Amino acid sequence: MKSKIITGILFLVIIANVYLLQADLITVNANGGAQFLSIQEAINVASNGDTILVHPSTYYENINFNGKNIVVASLFLTTGNKNYINDTVINGNHNGVVVTFQNGETSSAILKGFTITNGYAADGGGIKCSNASKPVIDHLIISNNTASDDGGGVACFNNSSMKITNCIFNDNIANDNGGGIFLNHCKGLIDNCLFSENISYGGSSAIDCWTADPLIINCTFFDNISYGWATIGIWDSSNPIIFDCIVSNNTGTGFTFHSQAQATIEYCNCYENSSGSFGGSVPSGLGTIVQVNSNGDPCDIYYNIYLDPEFIDSPDLDLNLSETSPCIDAGIIDTTGLNLPLYDLDGNPRIVDGNGDGIAIIDMGCYEYYNYQQHIYLEIPTEYALPGDTVLIPINVLFPQDSTFTSAEIIIGGYLGSLEFLELIADSSLVGDAGWMYEYNETDSLNTIWMAGSEPISGEDVLIWMKFSVPNTATDFIPITLEDALFDTGLVPVELTSGGIDIVALIYGDVDFNGLVQAYDASMILQYLIGYINLDDLQLSVADVSLDSTVSALDATLILQYGVGIIDTLPYQPGPSYIANGDITMEDQIYTGDPIDVPIIIANTENIFSFEGVIHFDSDCLTLAEVYWSEYLDGFYKWTDVEDGEFKLVGSGALPYEEYGVMATIRFYPKDGFNNCDSTTVFFKKLRWNENDIMHNIAASIITNNYGVNNPQEPELILQQNSPNPFAYNTKIQYSIPLESKVSLKIYNIRGELIVDLVNEFKDKGSYDVVWDGRDKYGNKAVNGIYFYKFISGGSEIIKRMILIR
C-alpha cells in the first residue's frame, strides 16, 4: 500500500511530537543502544502517561500492559513512515497471547505501529482484552495468529470496549469463533480495517459478535473463509451498527443472524459470498431491492448494494477501488454524529468527490478512491551502514504514465545533527541523464533542494543521489525524511515515503543484524550459496568469518562451532586442521526401469567440515526427484536446489565428515527425451571442500538406456509425492504411465470440492511432471490447508495428500 500524502504525515508527526513532550519517553531496541532490550521490561518500569518508543526489530515476547495507561508504539508514531509497521514485529513465538489488556486499562492505553504475529492461545491469539479494559489499537498488522477457541486475531470480553482503527487482519485462525475478531459482552469501534484470508472452523471468519454492540465503519472483508457460518456473525442479543463496509468473495454467508440478534446494516456492499449475503433470522428488508441509491445503482431500503466492488487489479493497490467501482461515493450521506474517519487506511483524506458529480460522499470500504495514475511517488529507502562509512542514498521517483516534468523542489529533514551531508550526485539518475541544474541549501533543520532543466524527465528511476558521511560515533537508526515536494507548478500531488540509514554494529557472524550470532546466521550463508536469498555487501562482510575474502560453507561451519563452544572467537582464521581431503567417484548406470539412482561415493576423507558442489544433468532427459544423504551427514546443515539442469549441493557441520562410502544418492526419473537417447551423463562439475581451491570436472556417471532389453516389462503406473511438501507457492507433481492413455490429475480441498484441473488429456507412455502454483481454477490463491490430488490413468486411480502453508 502507498504511504500517506504530505498533509497526513505532517499532521501525524506534529500530534505525536506534542504528545511526547508531555510525558516521559522510554526507548526499546533489541539490537542495543536504547534503555531496554525488550518491550515488557520497559512496560514494567513505565508509569501512566509514559510513551514507550520501540525501534525496528523482531521482539520474541508476550507483553502485558498490566493496567498501565501508556503508549507503546514503533517509530511510526513519530515519523508517519508505514515501513516501521512491517519492520517492528512482536512475535508471540506460538507461546500464548501476544499482547494482553486485562486490568481495566483506559483509552489512554495505546498500541500503535506494529506487526503482531505468531500468537497462540485459547482465546485471542494476537491480542486479548478483558475485565472492562478500553485500549486503543491503531495501525497494526495482525497476522498469522491462532486461537484454539475464539478470536484468532483479537478477542474482547467482559464489558471491555476496544477502539480498533487502521488495522490489517490477515491469515488469522480460530478453531471456533471469530477468525479475525471475537467480541463477547462488549462494545467498541472498528473502522478503516481490512480483513482478508482469516479462517474460522466453527463460527465466523472475520468478526463474531456475542451479545456485543460494536460500531463497524468503512471496513473491507475479502477472501475470508468460514467453515461454520459467515464472514460476520451476529448472535444472542447483539445489535451492532455496520455501515460503509464491503463484504465480498468470502466463503460462507456475508452475515448470519441468531434469532435474538439485531443489526443496523446500511450503505454496505455484499457481493459473491459463497453462501449468499445473509443467513439465519434476517431482519426485514435486508437484501430486497426496492430502489436506487445516489449513484443510480439498485439497492435495498437500507441503501445496501450487491454489485462487484471492482477492486484495482494491481499488487501495489490491492483492494483499492477502480475508477468504475459502484462503491465510490456510495457511503452514508447523513454523517451527523457518526464521527467518520478523517483518513482511509492509506492515510488519504476521506469524503472526496470520487465520481466527479460535484458532491463529496465517503466511499465504502477501507480505502477512499483516488486516481492513482495522477500521483507522483517519491521515496527515500532505508540503507544499512557502518560507523565512519560514506553512503549514497537515492531519492527514487515514480511519475504518472505519459507525464513529463522539468523542475522539482524537495525539502529533506530528519538527519541534521546526526549525519554530515556532503553533496548531491547526478550520475546514473534522471536529473543527470537530462542535464538538469541543481542546487541545495542546508540550514540547522532542513535541506532545500531545487532542480530544473529544459529536457523533460518521466518514468521511474533515481531522481538524484544524496551523499552522506556517517560519524564514527553513530548508532541506531538515523531518519532521512521527505518533508515536502513539488514538481513543476504542483498540480500533481506527491506521495512521500521516508527512510534513513540504519547503523549496524559490526559483529562477525551476525548475518541478519539482530545483534546475536545464531545458528540461523549459518543457515543464511548456506541459503545464499544455494541461491535462495541475496546478501548485501555489509552482510557479506560479516559472513566472511574466516577472513579469506570469500563467503563459503566453511564460514557457516565456523559460526556453528562458535555457537557450541568449539572455537571461542569470531572472526577465526582456520589453520591446517581445516585443510580438507576427499576423493569423489560416480559409477555408470544402466537404466532398466524407474527410478535411476546415481550414488556419489567418497574415499580418503579428512577434515571435511563443509562442501559446495554443482552437478549437471540433461533436463530434457532426466527429472531430479530426491537426494538421499548418508546418515553420517545427519549433523550437517544441508541445502539443495535445482534449476535448468544445474543441481547445487551445500552442506556445513560443526564436526568433520570423515566416513568412506556413499555420501549421497541422487534419484532421477526419465523424461520423454530419454527414450530417444542411447545414454545421458550426469557430471559433477565443481566441488569445494571447506575453503580449499575449487575443483572442476570431478566425476561423471553415464546412464545407458537399456530399457526393454534387460527388462522387457513396461514401467509401473507411478504417482510421486509432490515436492516440496508442505509448500508455499509452487509444488511439483511427477507421474509415470506404462501405456498411452487418458490422464486426469485434479486437486480437491478437504471438503471434496474441485479446486483446479491440472491435466485432462491423452498422454504417451513415459514420465511427466506438472507444477501447481497454489491457485484455483479462477486464478485466486488457494487458502492454507490440506489438499488431495487424484490421478487417474486407464482404469487405475491414485490419491495423495499435500499441505499448502503460506
Structural class: mainly beta
State the distance separating the first and last CA atoms. Answer: 20 Å
Number of strands: 62
Sheet bearing the most strands, described?
A: 13 strands, parallel
**Beta-strand fraction estimate:** 35-45%
Task: Calculate Rg over CA atoms.
Answer: 30 Å
Rounded average pLDDT: 88
Percentage of helical residues?
A: under 10%
> Which shape, going by the Cα principal axes?
globular
Task: Catalogue the unreliable spans.
Answer: 1-22, 708-714
Helix tally equals: 8
Summarize the SSE layout with pairings.
Layout: H1 6-21, E1 25-28, H2 39-45, E2 51-54, E3 57-60, E4 63-64, E5 71-74, H3 76-79, H4 83-87, E6 88-91, E7 99-101, E8 110-112, E9 115-117, E10 120-123, E11 127-129, E12 136-138, E13 141-143, E14 146-150, E15 154-156, E16 161-165, E17 168-170, E18 173-174, E19 181-184, E20 187-191, E21 194-196, E22 199-200, E23 207-210, E24 213-217, E25 220-222, E26 225-235, E27 241-243, E28 246-248, E29 251-257, E30 264-266, E31 269-271, E32 278-280, E33 291-292, E34 298-299, E35 376-379, E36 382-385, E37 390-398, E38 405-413, E39 420-425, H5 430-433, E40 437-442, E41 446-457, E42 460-469, E43 477-487, E44 494-497, E45 499-503, H6 519-530, H7 537-543, H8 553-564, E46 581-586, E47 589-591, E48 596-606, E49 608-616, E50 622-629, E51 636-643, E52 646-657, E53 661-670, E54 679-689, E55 695-705, E56 718-719, E57 731-737, E58 741-749, E59 754-763, E60 766-772, E61 785-793, E62 796-804
Parallel strand pairs: 1-2, 2-5, 3-6, 4-7, 5-8, 6-9, 7-11, 8-12, 9-13, 10-14, 11-15, 12-16, 13-17, 14-18, 15-19, 16-20, 17-21, 18-22, 19-23, 20-24, 21-25, 22-26, 23-26, 24-27, 25-28, 26-29, 27-30, 28-31, 29-32, 35-44, 36-45, 47-55
Antiparallel strand pairs: 33-34, 35-37, 37-42, 38-41, 38-43, 39-42, 40-41, 43-45, 46-48, 48-53, 49-52, 49-54, 50-53, 51-52, 54-55, 56-57, 57-60, 58-59, 58-61, 61-62
